[in-house]
């Protein structure tokens, strides 16, 4: 489970600004955000399947993915985290890659995928859920959006709260630079859970959905601690300057670092 809030082509300083919480089992091997071996991809890495939840490239491509909350999953499925990696390594446009994904979408468990080309100012959203419906591909419009574990901008309580808080915080700074670390602490550490269970998605057990109903997730399970184990903030300025900040758990201690680069 993850949640992301972002503003796209609607801010005077930032064509793109993203905050994303990654929720996963704390014992799942993971590499923090860094440049990959080829020196082209910057992002975190799942050391079990080899994919990523969020990454970008020197050429101005960016992708992130969330799982769709569902009660049943395919026993044998392709790794969803491989989809962002494939896009970042390809030369296809976001729409061309999305159309390619459609052909094999039934081989994956539920996903929401955002594909971005900052040079062409193109952002595409593709999802293979709900089951039985045509695969969803849409161009993302300028403005503020939230992506959690249902379709883009689904009005889940935590998504609505995060969207409103993000909008208010951006308004507080107006046309000034936004202090990304402050945004992370103020918005992405929110542990407030849904106050009305009737507004939960009713996909899994009410107890599990309640535990997942906060922006920042902490839940004990028979398989170990599950919850938010990293928060990333990606800002892109109009001059092509990218800043990638991450605060992540490493051996149960929170660490943080920032990597900046110029889009080529």
From TrEMBL:
Coiled coil: none
Signal sequence interval, chain numbering: 1-15
UniProt entry keywords in alphabetical sequence: Signal
Protein name: Transport and Golgi organization protein 2
Organism (species): Macleaya cordata
Taxonomic lineage from the root: Eukaryota, Viridiplantae, Streptophyta, Embryophyta, Tracheophyta
